[in-house]
Batch of 4 targets.
Target 1
Amino acid sequence: MWRGCDMWPWKRKTENRSMTIDEFLAMAGIPNTGSGEHVSSGNAETLPAVLNAVAVISEAVASMPCYLYRVTRTNGVEARTWLADHPVDVLLNERPNDCQTPYQFKRTLMRHCLLNGNAYAVIKWGKDGQPQSLHPYPPRAVVPKRLDEHRYAYTITEPFSGRVRTYLQEEILHLRYSTDDGFLSRSPVSICRETLGLGMAQQRHGASIMRDGLMAAGIIKSGEWFDSIKGAKAMEALERYKGAKNAGKTPILEGGMDYQQLGMSNQDAEWLASRRFTIEDVARIFNISPIFLQEYSNSTYSNFSEASRAFHAMTMRPWLTNFEQQLKAALLLVSPSSGSRYLVEFDTTDLLRANPQDRFKSYETAIKSGVMCPNEAREREGMSPREGGEEFSQAWKQTVEVKGGGAND
C-alpha cells in the first residue's frame, strides 16, 4: 500500500540523544564503585540519609517566598520597593507554570541540583519581553552544548512525546551546583560516589544477613545425642518460655542440657558503627549537621539551637544566594531605570523564627529603639494592624540629665 506520509520530506524530529557513560553502566548493571555498587543520581536516595538531606534542603528553599525588589540609591542611601505586580514576582510566588505551585517548582529545581549538579527550566517569553512561565525538565532529558566561547544551547527531549527541541541560553534557567568550567556542574553524588557506594553495600549486607544469616539469641548444649523423640520432647518443653508473655520465666532444663546466650559479635557492632558513620559522611557531602538527618547521638538542646543557626548561615545561605543570582540573571534581562537595580531575595524570616518569648523580647527592643513600629511587629505575627500602631517610639531620643545641686536644693 502506498503511504504518502513516507514520501513527505518534512518529518518530526525524533530523539537522537547519545547515552552517557553512567546511563550505560546502570543499564548494563556494571558497578562504578570499588564496593561493587552502582551509584547514580537515580538510586542515591535509596540511602535514607541522602533522601533526608535532599528533602531537608530542597523543602527549606521551597517553603521560603522569593520576592523581587527595586533598589534605588539617593544621596548615598539605598531604599527598596517590593514589586508585587511584576511578572517575575508573580512567577516566583503565584504560578510558575500551569501544572505546579511555587513550592513544587522550587523543590523540583533544588532536588535536581542536589542530585545531578544541574537543574533546568524552560523560560517562555511573552511579546512584552517578560517571562510568562517556567517549566522544569529532568537533567537526563537535557543535552547542553557549547556553541562559542560564551554561547550555549540546550537540546531537550520531551519525556512524554519524545519530541526534541533546541533552546538558546536566554530561554533556559540553568541552576548550577559547583562547576569547573563555568558552564556544567559536577554532581555531589558523582563526586562522592565511593562513599555512597560503601553505604549502599552496608545496606545490602544487612539485608542479606536478615535473609540468610543465623540470628539465634542463644544455643542449648547437651552431653548426649537426641533422637527424634527426645528432640521433640525438648522442643515442647522450650515452647513454654517463648514469646513476650513468657518473658522473665526461669526455664527448667532436663537431661544435662545447658543454655548459652549469644551476644552481639564485634563484627556486628562495627557494622552498626559504620552505618552511623555513613550518616555523618552524607552530612559532610551536603554540608548539613547530622542532627537534621535524625542522628541525635551527640545532640543536646544547646547544640541543636546552634545547629539551627548554622544551618541558615552555612548550608542555606550559599544555596539561596546562588538561586537568587541565577534567577536575576535569567529572568531580568532588561535593567531598570538609571540609578536603580533589581534585587531577588528569599525571605528567611521563618527559618530564623525563634520561640514566642524570644520573638516578643526582640520586638520590644526594636519598638523602643525606633527600628520598628507596633504594626510591623503585628504583621510579622500574622495579625491585623491597629489604629495608632504606625507611630514610631521616640524613646531613643530622650536623654536623662542629672545636675548636681547645692545644699539648699
Note: Residues 323 and 367 are 33 Å apart (CA to CA).
Target 2
Amino acid sequence: MSQADVSYSCGSCGYPLNLTSSHQITCNIGSGYPKSIKKGYISFLSVDLSRFTQVDEKSAKKVVMEEPLSDIHTSIMHLPNDCLSIVFQFLGCSSDRDSFGLTCRLWLNIQNTHRRSLQFHCSLALPNASLSQRGLITSSFHVHRLLTRFQHLQYLSLSGCSELSDLCLTYLQSYASKLYSLSLDCCFGMTDNGLSLVAAGCSSLEVISLYRCNFTDAGLETLANGCSALRHINLSYCPLVSDRGLRALSQSCHQLEAVQVSHCSEVNGTGFQGCSPTLTHIDADSCKLEPEGIMAIVSGGGLEYLNVSRMNWWISGVTTLAAIGAGFATRLRILNLWLCRTVDDESIAAIAEGCPSLQEWNLALCHGVRIAGWQSIGINCNKLEKLHVNRCRGLCDLGLQALREGCKRLMVLYIGSTWKLSTTAIELFKLHRGNVEISREEITFIGPGEAIRR
C-alpha cells in the first residue's frame, strides 16, 4: 500500500474494513462522481465480506450500544402509568385535567384515581344551593356508580339529597375506606342503620356533618365506636340527639376538637363531662344548658371557642353561666353570649376573672349586665381586643367609662344603638381611646366561620 493510500473504517464505530483508496474503482469518475460521493456511494475492486460479518467482542459491544434508534417509535402513550400519574399531578388547571381524562380510557382511569372530592349538584355545600334543588341526583344507583369510579375519595358530600336511603351508604364499606370527611346534611331518609354502615366502612373518618338529620343517640353510639378518630362533628338541628349520644362521643373519640349542637333541644350539656382536652370548639346556640352542663362543657380544660348565644333558659336563684369562669376555661379566647338576656353581673364577673385569655366577647342584647359587670370587664379583661355591646340596655355612661379606663388592648367596640349612653360619654371615649374603632355593626356570629373544616 502506497503512502498516499487512505484506509476506510466504519463511520459509526471506527471498525477497520480492510478497504483502501488504491482498491477504489476510478474509471467511472466523471461529472456525476461528486453526487455519488455525497450519497455515500463508493465502488471498490474487491471487498472483504468477512469484515462485515465477524467482529471482535469489544467492537460488537460498541456497535450494539451505539445502534441507532431511528426504527423505534416512541410516544407519550407508551409511558407507564406511574409516569402518567406524575404528569397528571403537574396539571394545575381543572380544564387541563378534564382534557387529560378525555384522551383515552387509560388516561381517564388515571384521572379517576386522583379524584379526592365529590359532591352532588344538590349539595348544600355549593354556593347558592338550597333544598329546592334536591332530586337532581338522588338515586342510590348513581352513588354506587360514582363510588365505583372514584375509589380514592377523601371528601364526600351527599348534603341536600333528602330522598337517599340507607342503601347508598352500604357502598361505603367497599369503596370509601380512605374517606376523611363525610357530609350528610338534610339527608332525611337515612336512619341509624345507615350511620352504622358509615361506622363499619369509614374507620378513618375525621369529619362528619349530620345537620338536620334524624339520627338518634343509638346511631351516635355506633358511630363513636367505629370512628374513634373523629375530630369534628356537626349535630346542629338534630332533634333526636341528647346528652347520651354526646357522652358516647366524648368517651370514645379522644381526638375530638369541635362539636356543634346548636338548636338541639334535648341537650343540656352534661354529655360533655370528661371530654378530651383536645376539644377546643363548642357551638351550643339555643340549647337548654344547665349549670352542670356548663361545667361539663369546660371540664376538658382546652376550650378556646364557646357559643352559648340565645340561652335564655333560667333556673331561679342559679347563675348558670357563672360556671364558665370556674377555672377550667383559662384558654377560652372567644365567647359568644349574644341575646343571653338572663346573664347578670355575678356571671359576668366570674367569667371576666376566670377567663384571662378572652380576646373577643359578644354581649349584645345582654340586658342584665350593669355597671358592676362592665367594671369587672374593664379591670380583668386585659387581653380583650373585640367587645360587642350592641343594644345593651344596662350600658350607661359609667359603664362605658369603666371600659374606657380598662381593657388596654381593646381594638374594636361594637356599640350600635344604646339608650342610656350620652353623646358626651361616647366622645370622651373616642378622645381618650383614639386607637379603638367604634363600630355600629351588629354581628350575631363571631369567631371561626365553621367548626367543620372540609
Note: Confidence is low (pLDDT under 50) at residues 55-70, 131-135, 450-454.
Target 3
Amino acid sequence: MMVHPTARSTASDFSSLPLYKHAHNQIYPSSAQSSMNFRQSSKPAALFDPETGAELHRHPDLWFDDGSVICRAEDILFRIHISQMCRHSPFFRDMFSIGNPSNSVLGSSIYSKGGPNDFENCPLIELHDKADDVGNLFVALYDGPHFGNNDQDDFRVVSGVLRLSTKYLVDSLREKAIAHLSTAWPSTLKGWDAREDVARAYEMETGTSGARLYPSPLAVINLAREVDAPALLPSAFFDLSRYTYPQIFDPCAQDPLYYPSSSSNSPSPPPSLSSTSPPPPICLSLGDTQRLCLGKEASQHAITSLIQSMSNSQSIRNSGLQLQSAFSLTHPLTHGYTSSLSGSMHQSGHYHHHRSSSAAICISAAACRKDFSELVDLATKHYLFDRERGYSDPLYMADEIGGLKSEASECKACAKSLETWAMRERERIWRLIPTWFRLGSDTGSASPERTSSPPVVDI
C-alpha cells in the first residue's frame, strides 16, 4: 500500500478547465458550440500510469463523484469514502489518522488525457491486492455481504472478502464469511449430511457430479491456512481424500478438480476487469500433502475395519450384546427397544427389568445370520473389489450399510440393531477425521478409537 503526495491544484488551475467555466460562468449554454464543449468536458478523461503507460479504468459501480479517496488495485480505480473505510476497519482508521489525507493528492501517479480530472484533491492509495477482491470487499462494506449458495462462483467472491477482511481487520465481515463457508465445509456431522444432500440434489437436477457444485477442496484448504480458519480444514481434507491421487495431482478435463482457464457458463466480466492469464494450478504445501496421504490411508483403513467388524459381530455374540446394552441405555435413538434388551440381560442374571415388549427379538436367528454373512460379502465386493461409489468414503459406506438389512430382511430387530450401529460408527468416524489428518486440537481432534462390532439383539 502506498500514498502518493503531489502538489495541490489551485483555483486558477480549475478555472482553465471547460467544466469549471460552464459550472460557474454559464449555467445554460447560449450557443451550440458551448453545448458541444459541455458534452466533451463531461466525458471522463482517459487515465494512464505515467511510469508504464498502462491505461487505468474507473470501477463501473465503485466510483463515487463525492468520494474522498481513490484506491488503486491492479489497473482498476475505486473512488470511495474515507469515512466508510474508517468505520469498518481499524487498519484504515489508524492509517488515515496518522497523516493528513488532504496533503496527499493525485498528480504524477496518474496521467489524464482527453478530458478534465474529476478527482482533484483526492488522496491515492495503492492496494497490492487483486482488483476483483478489492471490489467485492468494498461492495460488502457499502451494501453488506450478500453471499450465494457456496458454489464455485460464490467461493471466488467470499474468499476475496474473507482474505481482505482478515488483512484489513474488518472483523464483522470476516466472521460472516467464515460462517457462510462453514455451511459447505462444516464442523459437525449434521452439517456434513446437509451438505451432501445439497450435492445429491444438484446431481439429480443437472446430471453432473455433485462434486462440481462446490469449489475445489484444495482451494479451501489453502484459503483456511491463509486466513487462519482451522474449522474449515477437517471437512475440506476429508472431501479431498475421497478423490484418487491422479484426480488430485494430475486431473483431466473430466475430473471435478480440473479447472479450465475460462468457463463458458460464467458471465464474462467487463474487459477492464477480466484477466487474460489462466488461473495458476492449485497445489498444497508439503506439510498438507503429507497430511492428506496419512488421512487418506486412515480413511481406507476405516472402510475395511467397518466390513471386518460386521463379520466379527456374528461370532462374538457376548461382546456385541454387552456393547448394545451399554449403548441403548445412553443413546436417545435406541430407547424404543431398551426394554427388550433389559429382558435379555434379566435372563443372564445381570439386570432385573420386566420384559414388556418383544419388538427387538430376532424372529429368525438362522436367516439373520445368513443375511449378515451375505451383507459382508456384498460390502466386500462392492467397496473393496469393484470400488463402486462410496469405496473411498467411510461415512457414505456406513450410512449405506446401516440401511441394507432393512431392505432385505423382515427381521426389524436385527435391522434396527445394524442401523443403530452404523449411526454410531458414523459419529465415531467424524470425530476421528481431525486425528486422521493430523490437524491438531484447534479443529476438535479426538483420541483414536477402535471400531466396534454391531450390537447384536437376542437371537
Note: The chain is about 50% helix and 5% strand.
Target 4
Amino acid sequence: MCFSKQSTQVSHLFFFSAFTLSQIHLFFLSNSSKNQRKGKMVDLDWKAKMVSSDMSCTSPKFSNKSRGSLPSPLRFAVSDLSPAPSSACLAYEQFVRLPELSKLWTFNEFPGWKNESILKPALQALEITFRFISVVLSDPRPYVNQREWRRRLESLATHQIDIIAILCEDDVEAAETRGTAPIADLNSSNGVLARNRSSAVWNHPGGTPVVSRTSEASLLPRLATWQKSEDIASKILFSIECEMRRCPFTLGLGEPNLAGKPNLEYDLICKPSDLHSLKKSPSDRRNLDNHENQTLFTTHQILESWIQVSRELLRRIEERIDGQEFGTAASDCWLLERIWKLLTEIEDLHLLMDPDDFLRLKNQLAIKASTESEAFCFRSKALIEITKSSKDLKQRVPAVLGVEVDPKGGPRVQEAAMKLFHGHRKGDFEKIHLVQAFQAIESSLKTFFFSYRQLIGVVMGSLEVKANRALIYADSSDTLSQIFLEHTYFPSLDAAKTFLEDFWHHELGIAGSNGPDRARTKQ
C-alpha cells in the first residue's frame, strides 16, 4: 500500500494503515471461529476484498462505498484551561461568600461517616433552593415572570432531590458506608422526645419504634404553610417521598413518610441556620436597589455547592478505579454526568432575569470581560478544577482496559476496547458501563460550556461572548467554543466504536447475501 505524504501526517491516535485495519477485522472474524466449528458461514475473504476495493493507494480513508471513516483531527484544542485573573476570581468569591460556604462544606461533624463531604454540600444546595423560592415569590416587581420562575425552581428542586436520593442509596449499598449515616432514633434523645409537632414515634407491630422527625431549621416546612408557596412546597415534599423510597431512611423535611422510616439528621448535617446567615451578599451594603442582585447571588451559591459535590465525587471515582471497583466507579460517573446537566439547568436560571435590571446590575458590579478567558464562569476556580478532572478521566482508560499505552502510537488501547465491547465476557460488564459513563461525562461537560456560551449571548448580548470585540466570526475561536469543539477526550474508545460499527455493517451485508437465517454468536 502507498500513501501520500500529506495523508501520513494524520495524528497517530486516529491513523491506521490498511494492514492494521485488516487485522482489526480479522480479529472480529477470528472471534467467530466458534461459528465456523458449528458450520456457520463466515466470509474470510471479506478482509482482502475490503482492503483491495475500499482502500485507495493514495489515502488511508475508506472509499464512499464504506460507511466507516477515519476521524479527522479538529482544529480546536484547549491545551491549558485556566481561570480568570486572580482579581476577578477574588471578587467573585467575595460576592458569593465562598470562603464562608467552604467552611460549612468541609466541617467534619461525623468522623465515622465517609460520605459526609459529598452529601452535605448537596443538602445545602437544596436548602439554598428553598430560600431561592422565598426570594422569588417575595419579589414585588410586577413585570417578573413568576409563573416560569415557579416551574423552573420546582424542576430544579426535584432534580436535586433525585441526585440526593441516589447518593443516599449508594451510601447504603456500599459495605464501607452502610449504616454510618446519622439517623434520628430514640437513643439520640434517651427515649424522650420534645412535645412539639416536629417529632413523632412510629410503632410497627412486632418491630422497634421509629422516630419520624421534621426539621425545625429548614425553610421547606415553613414554605408549606405560606399561601404563596404552599403548592410548590407540597410538590417538593411528595418528590422527597417518591425519590427516597429505595432508601431505608428519609430526609425528614415534612414529607408524608408513609413507610414510617427513620429520618436523616438533616439539621445537624445541613445546618440551615448557619447557611441562611449567608443569605446576604456583600454588595447588598452598597444599596444597589436591584432585586436581581439577590437572584444572581443565590443562583451562584447553589452552583458552587454542586461544584463542590462534583469535586468530592471525582475524588471518590479516582479511589474506586484505583481499587478496581469498576461497578461503583461507573455508578459515580453516571452521577457526575447528571450533575453536569444540573449545572447547566442552574445556569439557565439567568434566562429569567429581567434584561434591564440585570444589565444595570452588571454595570453596578463592574462585571465585564476584557478577554475571552474572563467569561464569568471562568471566575470559578472550582469549576475549572472539575472540568480538568473530568477531562483527565481519559488517562484512566488504559488501566480500566488492562493494557498499557503503546509508546510507538500503535492501536493497543483501541484493540482492547474493541475486545471489551464485542466480547461481552462475564466480568467485563462493569468495565463497559464505566467507559460508557466516561464518554457521557464528556458529552454533558461540553454541553454545559456550549449552553453557557449561548446563555451569555442571550442575557448579555453577543458582543460579550467575544469579550466586546467588534467582529464576531461564524468560525468562532473563543475559549467556550473551543471546549465544545475540541476533539473527543477518548479517541481510542471513539475509534473502537467506529471500526466496530463498520465491522457489523460488512458482517450483516455478508449475512444478507448468504441468507436471512444466518446465525451468529459472540465470544
Note: Strands lie at 55-56, 59-62, 199-202, 210-213.
